[in-house]
Amino acid sequence: MHEMALVRSVVDIVLDKATEVGASKVTTVHIAIGEGRDVVEDLFEGLFRHLAKGTVAEDAEIVIYDIPYLAKCNQCGFTFHVEVFDQSTWGCPHCGIRQDYEVINGLEFYVSNIEIEAVPARDTALAS
What we know:
By secondary structure, this protein is of the alpha+beta class.
């Protein structure tokens, strides 16, 4: 279950950033996940809830952006989508060359945005 290590990293990143900016609550966490990461999204979200319990991120909404496999043909430079389980997509639809390409998208995994509620700043002018 590689999701546990991935979720632990995300929770650590979110909590570190929340502490850094003085967040009182993390409302939304946006995560980009490439198709090649083979992440079970429901499991990911459940683990996030478990690991973030008792923190400023425990009620955060998780928004996952799926990034498809994209390949660039080494012969003509055309960029196209590759379906791992569909061999008919394993060739360049532009020039017809098969299996001579470089995967350029689909292996990503990163936190793309964190939305927070900030702790209100104290008005020092009123304290004097």
